[in-house]
């Protein structure tokens, strides 16, 4: 029997693997990604959809300076003082380098141990109650390097690196991306 996949945000954001959020420039992609990330970090429902609470790493490669204001506004709108389960990395990651991905996985394993304990009935829980659930890469363009997004030879290793990151951490990796020039689909090679 095929199991229904778990959700981070019910029927919106899957609970494992690599997910893609894309849209035209200036349409609020980062606002949505930040909203989703903060909902997961705090356990707040997203627009009425239940959310699984967990730790979040947000790699903010665009608009890093504006993140502080966006987070403050989000917390204020949700009547919260802070969101301690989210970490912000302002900069880029070299996903082309296998060592960088392996080092990131090692660091995340150290920071967010994934040790499970059996609680009966076939159920398991993370020892600290929360696990790393979401890694946001905002945006593909800023973390892709100098290669051609339209090239299979360049895009496939990037996708593979994100999948290695998802598999190595057990978290969903959410990739924020732009549409093509016509606005009809995501930019870059169709393997994405």
Description:
With 192 residues, the protein is of the alpha/beta class. The chain is built from 5 helices and 9 strands; from the N terminus they run E-E-E-H-E-H-E-H-E-E-E-H-H-E. The strands form 3 sheets. The protein has a 5-stranded parallel beta sheet, sandwiched between helices. A two-stranded antiparallel sheet has the order 1-2. A two-stranded antiparallel sheet has the order 6-7. It is globular, with a radius of gyration of 17 Å.
**Distance N to C terminus:** 28 Å
Structural class: alpha/beta
Largest sheet: 5 strands, parallel
Helix-strand pattern: EEEHEHEHEEEHHE
Low-confidence stretches: none
Number of helices: 5
Approximate helicity band: 25-40%
| Count of strand segments | 9
Average pLDDT rating: 82
Work out the radius of gyration: 17 Å
Shape: globular
For the biggest β-sheet, the strand order reads: 3-9-8-4-5
| Amount of beta strand | 15-25%
Main traits of this protein?
5 helices, globular, alpha/beta, 192 residues, 5-stranded parallel sheet
Task: Give a short summary of the structure.
This protein has 192 residues and is α/β, with parallel strands linked by helices.
Topology:
Layout: E1 7-9, E2 13-14, E3 17-23, H1 29-42, E4 55-60, H2 64-77, E5 86-90, H3 98-111, E6 116-120, E7 123-126, E8 132-138, H4 140-143, H5 152-169, E9 172-178
Parallel strand pairs: 3-9, 4-5, 4-8, 8-9
Antiparallel strand pairs: 1-2, 6-7
